[in-house]
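subagent[fold] <- orchestrator: predict structure for attached chain, return tokens only, no commentary.
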Amino acid sequence: MDALTREPVLAPPSGRLRRWVVGFLCVLATAGLGAAIWFWPVAPREDKAARLREANQIIPVVQAEAVKRDVPVWLDGLGTVQAFQTVTVRSMVDGPLTGVAFKEGQTVHAGDVLARIDPRVYQAALDNAAAKKALDEATLANARLDLARYQKLVVTNYATQQQADTAKATVAQLDAQVRQDQAQIDTAQTQLSYTTITSPLDGKVGMRLVDRGNIVHAADPGGLLVITQLQPISVVFSLPQQALAQVAAAQQSGAGGAGPTALAYAQGSDGGPGKPLDQGTLTVLDNQIDPTTGTIKLKATFPNQAGTLWPGGFVSVRLRVDTRLGATVVPQAAVQRGPRGNFVYVIDRDSTVHRKSVTIGYEDEAGSVVSSGIEPGERVVVDGASRLTDGAKVTVVAPDADASPTGGNRPAAPGTRPRGSGQGG
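subagent[fold] -> orchestrator:
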């Protein structure tokens, strides 16, 4: 009975299977060891050796001197060009368009004839009003003669006072009728003048919307053409609401009521190299901040004598809001960024460099304004700083050397504009 209920005992694995498993594990261990040896990091040891070799070397650098000068403060924004004035020219009367006196894209001046409408109907109305006035004037002249006769007859009692008063009232009535006729003539003359359509301003004509021979109406919504005034021209742009105090102060302090200076650059140039498209002044500071974007809208006016600004185009706008008088300025390339803030390497008389923390108040393409940390006349490193440590020995080389000492930390060329701080601090 016990033999029948006893559980079967599994046979141990064969010796060949055990040897196969052990061999596979050995192969895996060997492969892992080889990979670890192959990919073992050795760069830190090499970097340390390189730093030790460089510690005793004299490092070539390019220097610049901190200078004291007045620095204008600019705010940067993106703007849209708008026509100073835009007029859709429409017909004031109904009739067939008998003539078009402009070409598409033509520059016109105020008073230039643009189109003509058939004037015959309106000329006839004017002639009719003039004839009616002439008739009433003749009647009025006769009534005045009658009044004079009645006034004489009343004196000799050959006419009653009532007859004289009636004649006087008739004269007044006819005089009013003549004045009414003159008003009808003025209306007819105005309607007739509307048949000659002239330009209301100086500007450029757009596409022709109606061709000659069409019947035009005063109620037509499209009009005949659109004229835009391009000289002067406006640019609408936005700035962060944090700049409102600076802009308002600059606008109030403008000499002679003139607004702050504004420069317009082609989109993408970002105030960088090249000449601005035009120079103008700030004319409008909007009366409210956009709560959805946290920006304030502004408008600047430009003379646009060269026609470089065009309605609907995008431009970069720079607005001058202040001038830092007697500021300490260094090239942007001299300012280094670190975890503890901005700093520069100052070259001492014994050709050693020392790291000095600085406070940057403002930056643009002309340089960085140092609020504190260094004084005018101190020499700073503008190229080669990546290899320097505090107390390192340096030798000053010319900035036009064939190769940069660091292989790529050369100072920015004059006129370039590294981005990152375009507003006053």
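orchestrator: received. Logging for downstream: Residues 78 and 316 are 5 Å apart (CA to CA). Confidence is low (pLDDT under 50) at residues 1-11, 42-46, 401-425.
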